[in-house]
Fold:
Amino acid sequence: MPDTETTGAPSRRLIVLASVLALALAAGVAIAGVLGSRSGPSGDGPLALVPVPAPQANSPECDRILAALPAELTSDGTKLSRRELAQPAPPATVAWGSPEAVVVRCGLERPGDLTPSSSLRVVSGVQTLLAEGDGSSTWYVVDRAVYLGVTVPSSAGTGPLQQVLETVANTLPAVPLRF
Structure:
Protein backbone atom coordinates (compact mmCIF):
# COMPACT_ATOMS: atom_id res chain seq x y z
CA MET A 1 0.00 0.00 0.00
CA PRO A 2 1.49 3.37 -1.00
CA ASP A 3 2.33 5.89 1.69
CA THR A 4 -0.26 8.74 1.69
CA GLU A 5 2.36 11.24 2.77
CA THR A 6 4.26 10.65 -0.42
CA THR A 7 1.27 10.46 -2.82
CA GLY A 8 -0.77 13.34 -1.34
CA ALA A 9 -4.01 11.29 -1.45
CA PRO A 10 -6.32 11.28 1.61
CA SER A 11 -6.40 8.19 3.76
CA ARG A 12 -9.08 5.58 3.26
CA ARG A 13 -10.45 6.36 6.74
CA LEU A 14 -10.89 10.04 5.83
CA ILE A 15 -12.71 9.15 2.59
CA VAL A 16 -15.13 6.85 4.46
CA LEU A 17 -15.75 9.49 7.14
CA ALA A 18 -16.44 12.18 4.50
CA SER A 19 -18.85 9.84 2.67
CA VAL A 20 -20.75 9.03 5.86
CA LEU A 21 -21.03 12.74 6.73
CA ALA A 22 -22.26 13.58 3.21
CA LEU A 23 -24.93 10.86 3.40
CA ALA A 24 -26.02 12.03 6.86
CA LEU A 25 -26.31 15.61 5.61
CA ALA A 26 -28.34 14.52 2.57
CA ALA A 27 -30.67 12.46 4.77
CA GLY A 28 -31.09 15.40 7.16
CA VAL A 29 -31.99 17.75 4.31
CA ALA A 30 -34.50 15.24 2.93
CA ILE A 31 -36.16 14.76 6.34
CA ALA A 32 -36.29 18.51 6.93
CA GLY A 33 -37.90 18.95 3.51
CA VAL A 34 -40.60 16.37 4.24
CA LEU A 35 -41.35 17.79 7.70
CA GLY A 36 -41.23 21.36 6.41
CA SER A 37 -43.75 20.62 3.66
CA ARG A 38 -46.24 19.46 6.31
CA SER A 39 -46.23 22.83 8.01
CA GLY A 40 -45.79 25.01 4.95
CA PRO A 41 -48.50 26.74 2.91
CA SER A 42 -50.51 23.54 2.49
CA GLY A 43 -49.88 22.18 5.98
CA ASP A 44 -50.82 22.79 9.56
CA GLY A 45 -48.51 25.72 10.21
CA PRO A 46 -49.76 29.23 10.88
CA LEU A 47 -52.23 30.46 8.28
CA ALA A 48 -51.30 33.77 6.65
CA LEU A 49 -54.31 35.98 5.95
CA VAL A 50 -54.50 39.30 4.17
CA PRO A 51 -55.89 42.02 6.44
CA VAL A 52 -59.17 43.62 5.40
CA PRO A 53 -60.84 46.72 6.84
CA ALA A 54 -62.63 45.73 10.04
CA PRO A 55 -63.52 48.94 11.89
CA GLN A 56 -65.62 47.09 14.50
CA ALA A 57 -63.18 44.25 15.12
CA ASN A 58 -62.61 45.38 18.72
CA SER A 59 -66.32 45.68 19.51
CA PRO A 60 -68.03 43.83 22.37
CA GLU A 61 -70.13 41.97 19.77
CA CYS A 62 -67.01 40.56 18.10
CA ASP A 63 -65.60 39.61 21.50
CA ARG A 64 -68.82 37.69 22.23
CA ILE A 65 -68.84 35.91 18.88
CA LEU A 66 -65.15 34.95 19.04
CA ALA A 67 -65.60 33.56 22.56
CA ALA A 68 -68.67 31.55 21.50
CA LEU A 69 -67.23 29.98 18.34
CA PRO A 70 -66.43 26.25 18.70
CA ALA A 71 -62.91 24.83 18.90
CA GLU A 72 -63.80 22.41 16.10
CA LEU A 73 -66.12 22.43 13.11
CA THR A 74 -67.40 19.35 11.28
CA SER A 75 -67.04 19.12 7.51
CA ASP A 76 -68.50 16.00 5.88
CA GLY A 77 -67.75 13.97 9.02
CA THR A 78 -64.22 15.32 9.37
CA LYS A 79 -63.28 17.44 12.38
CA LEU A 80 -61.65 20.76 11.51
CA SER A 81 -59.53 22.11 14.37
CA ARG A 82 -58.81 25.76 15.04
CA ARG A 83 -55.82 26.97 13.10
CA GLU A 84 -53.08 29.26 14.33
CA LEU A 85 -52.87 32.51 12.38
CA ALA A 86 -49.56 33.90 11.15
CA GLN A 87 -48.53 37.16 12.75
CA PRO A 88 -49.49 39.87 12.31
CA ALA A 89 -52.94 38.30 12.32
CA PRO A 90 -55.97 40.33 11.29
CA PRO A 91 -58.04 41.32 14.34
CA ALA A 92 -61.22 39.40 15.22
CA THR A 93 -60.38 36.56 12.85
CA VAL A 94 -60.55 32.80 13.44
CA ALA A 95 -59.80 29.86 11.11
CA TRP A 96 -60.30 26.11 11.12
CA GLY A 97 -58.95 23.32 8.93
CA SER A 98 -56.02 22.50 6.73
CA PRO A 99 -54.92 22.80 3.97
CA GLU A 100 -57.99 24.83 2.99
CA ALA A 101 -59.42 26.84 5.86
CA VAL A 102 -62.82 28.05 6.96
CA VAL A 103 -62.28 31.67 8.04
CA VAL A 104 -64.50 33.94 10.13
CA ARG A 105 -63.81 37.68 10.22
CA CYS A 106 -65.81 39.91 12.54
CA GLY A 107 -66.36 43.66 12.53
CA LEU A 108 -66.10 44.13 8.76
CA GLU A 109 -67.30 47.16 6.84
CA ARG A 110 -70.77 46.93 5.33
CA PRO A 111 -70.51 44.80 2.16
CA GLY A 112 -70.58 47.07 -0.88
CA ASP A 113 -73.02 44.73 -2.64
CA LEU A 114 -75.62 45.06 0.14
CA THR A 115 -78.49 47.09 -1.31
CA PRO A 116 -82.28 47.05 -0.81
CA SER A 117 -82.53 44.81 -3.89
CA SER A 118 -79.80 42.33 -2.83
CA SER A 119 -80.72 38.67 -2.92
CA LEU A 120 -80.24 37.48 0.66
CA ARG A 121 -80.23 33.91 1.93
CA VAL A 122 -81.30 32.82 5.39
CA VAL A 123 -79.03 30.14 6.85
CA SER A 124 -79.60 28.90 10.41
CA GLY A 125 -81.85 31.89 11.04
CA VAL A 126 -79.23 34.43 9.93
CA GLN A 127 -79.59 36.67 6.86
CA THR A 128 -76.53 36.46 4.62
CA LEU A 129 -75.25 37.95 1.40
CA LEU A 130 -73.37 35.41 -0.70
CA ALA A 131 -70.22 36.35 -2.62
CA GLU A 132 -68.98 33.40 -4.64
CA GLY A 133 -65.29 33.14 -5.41
CA ASP A 134 -62.95 30.76 -7.17
CA GLY A 135 -62.81 27.68 -4.95
CA SER A 136 -64.62 29.28 -2.00
CA SER A 137 -67.65 31.34 -1.04
CA THR A 138 -67.93 34.15 1.48
CA TRP A 139 -71.20 34.55 3.33
CA TYR A 140 -71.62 38.01 4.84
CA VAL A 141 -73.81 38.18 7.93
CA VAL A 142 -75.87 41.32 7.39
CA ASP A 143 -78.55 41.28 10.10
CA ARG A 144 -76.49 41.64 13.30
CA ALA A 145 -74.94 44.67 15.06
CA VAL A 146 -71.61 43.86 13.36
CA TYR A 147 -70.89 42.50 9.91
CA LEU A 148 -69.16 39.14 9.70
CA GLY A 149 -67.64 37.30 6.77
CA VAL A 150 -67.57 33.48 6.75
CA THR A 151 -65.36 32.14 3.97
CA VAL A 152 -65.89 28.45 3.24
CA PRO A 153 -63.84 26.43 0.73
CA SER A 154 -65.95 24.59 -1.84
CA SER A 155 -64.57 21.29 -0.52
CA ALA A 156 -65.93 21.88 3.00
CA GLY A 157 -69.64 21.43 2.32
CA THR A 158 -72.30 23.35 4.25
CA GLY A 159 -71.68 21.96 7.76
CA PRO A 160 -69.07 24.52 8.88
CA LEU A 161 -71.20 27.43 7.63
CA GLN A 162 -74.26 26.16 9.47
CA GLN A 163 -72.30 25.66 12.70
CA VAL A 164 -70.82 29.17 12.59
CA LEU A 165 -74.14 30.79 11.75
CA GLU A 166 -75.94 28.85 14.50
CA THR A 167 -73.40 30.32 16.92
CA VAL A 168 -74.06 33.80 15.51
CA ALA A 169 -77.84 33.30 15.85
CA ASN A 170 -77.45 32.12 19.46
CA THR A 171 -75.01 34.87 20.45
CA LEU A 172 -76.15 38.10 18.81
CA PRO A 173 -79.72 39.29 18.31
CA ALA A 174 -80.91 40.21 14.84
CA VAL A 175 -81.12 43.90 13.93
CA PRO A 176 -82.80 45.65 10.98
CA LEU A 177 -80.78 45.69 7.78
CA ARG A 178 -78.65 48.82 7.21
CA PHE A 179 -78.14 50.02 3.65
